[in-house]
Amino acid sequence: MTTNYSFDDLKRDVADGRIDTVLACLVDMQGRLMGKRFQAQFFVEGAYEETHSCNYLLATDMEMETVSGFKATSWEKGYGDYTMKPDLSTLRRVPWLEGTALVLCDVLDHHTHEDVPHSPRAILKKQVARLEAMGMKAFMATELEFYLFDQTYEQAHAAGYRGLKTASAYNEDYHIFQTSKEEDVMRAIRNGLQAAGIPVENSKGEASAGQEEINVRYADALTMADRHVVIKNACKEIAWSKGKAITFLAKWNYNAAGSSSHIHQSLWSGDGKTPLFFDKDAEHGMSETMKHYVAGLLAHAGEITYFLAPYINSYKRFMAGTFAPTKAIWSKDNRTAGYRLCGEETKGIRIECRVGGSDLNPYLAMAALLAAGIDGIENRMELEPAFEGDAYGGKDIREIPHTLRDATALMSGSAMLRSAFGDDVIDHYTRAAQWEQEEYDRRITDWEVARGFERA
Fold first, then answer.
1. Residues in contact with 205: Cβ distance below 8 Å, sequence separation at least 6, in sequence order
2. Alpha helix ranges (H) inside 332-393
3. pTM more than 0.90
């Protein structure tokens, strides 16, 4: 699926003076856009073929630290180059930035020009190719939640991220009047994304003060992941341009609801015309293929959690009674379950993974879900009965890992993930997870000081 903006369109816009800048971006391990701003004329004359970046971009943490312990790159290896190969099918105008277009790049080995195996886009493309070999195509959609603040990013930073004022003072879930007060930002986001070739369905208020959700039309897995990273960057840039700030932190405040990125997923025939999850004669309309796929998700739920919740903060979101799941079970149209059956008895039948937070990397999350589902199909796994009732109170049922430490161990020890992604890839992300834990373990939090300064 393309953005309906071609390289020929770009060349015309450059010649006519409408576009003077092209952002060439790769996606890093954190799901952020990293790259260069090209003079547009130079890009269309040759840089569209390839450009280069330092290979540390896929071996850093949130702070851009040169983390030790990675096999792929290090100070000993000299931090050489990767080749960035623009995927021109992702080319789009960026209407919220003057005279700007954007293209996403695949990350290639500088010498072999093969995909770098641990690059997020390559990881997802590998699972998509596995499905294609099975005559199947995955369609997905991500629902992104975030908080909108009245301060700018600069003001929030200067205040130490304390005393922040959300865009509303009360729970605004589905609230029309309150969201009308936020339309200056949200309307710009909806219209900006639509004009950038991302078909928007709606925005809405979410279940806490200042919390928003943006929903766009589903697409094949790779296209949806591409859209997801552009959406996040767009939301931040548009909010910044309006003197506001947005956070996709999974749990920004103890008293506020967490922010999620639910992932809806279904499989179709290779031509995208026949829903492989639907059987009109089966219970709930679930085909045998769908049952095997969901069984795979559940069998490997603990192993794939890291790719749905990659940070220390991610696990603060999993709290009972907050619409964030705590149990990795499936249920019929039940928002207390980690995996929710939607669209039963229709061609639109799908499984919604509710585990992921708004801080996930969509390529890694989707790839992990697909790998688990494929394993369920290949091994014809039997689906357990649907859970009924309040999953928060369920006893002796499969739980989501409680901490990053637990999730890291499960990922690292997963034979399924090592087979699907490769040992080097899993070792790479295991090191990233370990570093996140190590950095947190040596930090002193405000909570510790306030609790123990006088009383310890």
1. 168, 172, 173, 174, 175, 178, 179, 182, 211, 212, 213
2. 362-378
3. yes
